[in-house]
Amino acid sequence: MQRTVSLTVNGKPASATVEGRTLLVQLLREHLGLTGTHVGCDTSQCGACVVHVNGEAVKSCTLLAVQAEGANVLTIEGVANGDTLHPMQEAFRNNHALQCGFCTPGMVMSALDLVKDNPRPTDREIREYLEGNLCRCTGYHNIVLAIAEGAAVMRGEAPPANPHGVAAE
Amino acid sequence: MPDGTIGTPVRRREDYRFLTGQGTYTDDINRPGQLYAYILRSPHASARINAINTSAAKTAPGVAAVFVGQDMAAEGIGGLPCGWLVNSKDGSPMKEPPHPVLAVERVRHVGDPVAVIIAESYQQAKDAAEKVAVDYAVEAAVVDPAAALQPGAPQVWGDQAPGNLCYDWALGDEAAVDAALRGAARVVKIDLVNNRLVPNAMEPRAAIGEFNRATGDYTLYTTSQNPHVIRLLMGAFVLHIPEARLRVVAPDVGGGFGSKIYHYAEEAIVTWASAKVRKPVKWTAERSESFMSDAHGRDHVTHAELGVDAQGKFVALKVVTIANMGAYLSTFATCVPTYLYGTLLAGTYTTPVIFCETKAAFTNTVPVDAYRGAGRPEATFLVERIVDVAADELGMDPAELRRRNFIPANAFPYQTPVALQYDSGDYQTTLQMALQAADYAGFEARRQQAAARGKYRGIGIATYIEACGIAPSAVVGSLGARAGLFESAEVRVHPTGSVTVLTGSHAHGQGHETTFAQLVADGLGVPIDQVEIVHGDTDKIAFGMGTYGSRSLAVGGTAIVKAMDKVIAKGKKIAAHILEASDADIEFKDGRFTVAGTDRSLGIGEIALTAYVPHNFPHEELEPGLDETAFYDPKNFTFPSGAHIAEIEIDPDTGRLEICNFTASDDFGRIINPMIVAGQVHGGLAQGIGQAVLEGCVYDKTTGQLLTGSYNDYAMPRADDLPNFSLSTHATLCTHNPLGVKGCGEAGAIGAPAAIANAIVDALKPLGLRHVEMPATPEKLWRAIRQHQSGAAAE
Predict the structure, then answer these.
(1) How large is the ipTM?
(2) A39 touches chain B (CB under 8 A)
(3) Cβ B725 vs Cβ B662: under 8 Å
(4) Which run of H or E residues covers position B314?
(5) Which of A45, A78, A111 is the last residue in one of the domains?
(6) What is the pTM (predicted TM-score) of this model?
(7) Partner residue opposite B255 with nearest CB, options A102, A123, A142
């Protein structure tokens, strides 16, 4: 059974005709061409597909596309301001918090959700929050540093001294 | 460039696209008119295929074609080749049974591909696969490598590999080792298992085959670490397509860790099928398919004996290992437990005689091949565990026992008894740095404090040697490699002075677009934003051997340096002509060609423009253009080394283990980008710690079913399983490459498992624990504590 789903994605109206079983992540990737959201597993464990639905972080493989009817969806493609990276994206870059980049969109979307609820997370809180996002490359060490830096900048504070010796731009 | 970038933490140039969702991974690519493939896989570990009925599937909605093994066999399609011939100790070649792309007559592991269904949508293909009727006659399976070699075990290959034995390989002087063990003051013994792992790059494998009806050419987009190797293997051995008609593109690749080196069946299926259906064919693995079709890693069963003299010096090491090959020989499976394992058993020590025997066993499991470290983690785990057992038996501090046996820093080059010649290293210094950073001296106080809290706290050391950049080609060829192990690079200086570098290395997280650009910016004295690094496309890059074994900088980077040397040599001749000086008088520094002792000079941009607008040019001596290619074949491996220290605490009530501190002091030679190097170490440590305490691939011993087939069952390291890491480096330069670089990609995965295991045994030493098998899960630790507590109570 085909159904048309209309929603808002990254601030713009979008619609697509999908099967009942089509997942939100498939709608985004295959129907809307937003391939920044990734699929890394089939058991809702890896978090590569995290997007924001009505302001909350959601694994987009856990939602049917039809359930997103009328929703406001933010994907990684909508995070930067034009060519200017969001402070959280910038923090990932400053801290070498990504290697192959595959888990990165989900990590950034989860990080933004964490900081929304907890603007001043401790390292332990960051690590516990990231339970639902797998990364095989970084060992998470630099992701934790990046989220701490991103959170500081989002609070309007100066970023902490860069632990890798990267000079400020 | 007034300031060099080498040695500085340049932020990665690849990050912008990945952080904004603009990366292009294989599954992000869609070709016009493409169809989708679903691979029907065996649900059985061992079965005869009596019949396959595809007629209902062929008429299902949207289905374009269904193919089975016989369809490919009928066209003379070859099997997947193995790239390394290992001979048994009696000189006979390994047993090398066929590896059909789609199973014919039999299936040999759960996940063995049986049929491909091609349809207009992936869901249609998957739905139609349910209509394929396969009549299987299920037979007994064997999954454990030691069990497979027992008499009466189910036979994976029958007469083609009697007793399931692929080869019985040996290295070293067994008689000398036996004599030394007989004369030793003490012989320390250990039996251990190196647990089977699933690599689990976060991007599942994917492939798109595209046949061009107009030209007869093929393109394969694939998740590969080495597109040229895939072109060679698939073109020459499987599908019989000449290189000139086959383009292989490995775009952004989401991690590899070894698992994306190999030529896989799905690559051949989509390429071949695209010509059959005359449309592009796309396949993307579901994660559960990854678990049952990506090559796995490790899976050794080992007995070892270490002879020690009265002063604690190692006098001999004897190792007998059974290694699991799985059901088929994957591309480089055979060299991993032999030439990448037996040769590493000297570790960082002066052990004068070593003997290693490796029996490789076929089982009804997914093929096993190189996974981050590949042989070297297995060797290090064994050596560093037995050294700790020796220290315990001798009542000696494990750090002191190691110091006493290290190859001294002034002994290089050092010839080991297991074929390798180490060029440089300083094991005392890296150990000392790690001991200090970990406050080893203060540990006993922390153990007491933990005990007061009811916790068992332990500290464990592992030192390691790694052999990276496997080479030279002549030597590996004499050992059975069916490939050369060089690398190529082309440095193309454009008329306006910008530079394109085409490298045969491939990045899938390593950051080559940054590190290699740093090399070129410094080497040619051009701004880094004027340098573009291109990789991953056989139509752009002449040739390449790809990325594995921490070889990219040591081999691929050196090829770039060699090509830059040629650019500079030609530039000097052009400059000499324009400046009316002798070639020998031209010096090149910071991007300028200068007549020595004068202020007459030309920038590399001016030289490049002259090379392409050759009005005033030495035509009698040179051709126009400034574009040079180099192929570099190393003289030796490189030998990174280091010391890792883990400090852990175990809660006896739950068996839960906490990693309190992890310290790594590594020698990678010269470092180009310290931030990227630290990231490589972090990731390696996470995988090493994962092996030690979380990850284990489990098959049901009776049915051969894969019990850890998803992230619900296979414990991947998560952020809250891991500590912050404390890293430091100390450089002794590689003596045989111009950069002095050694490689850093696998070190963490090599050192960490033994450091963690040694820490666990140290923590539970008061209970009498002598060894713990990986992964040391809370359940395993809880049971070990219970067992030893009740044992201690009974005494």
Answers:
(1) 0.98
(2) yes
(3) yes
(4) strand B314-326
(5) A78
(6) 0.97
(7) A102
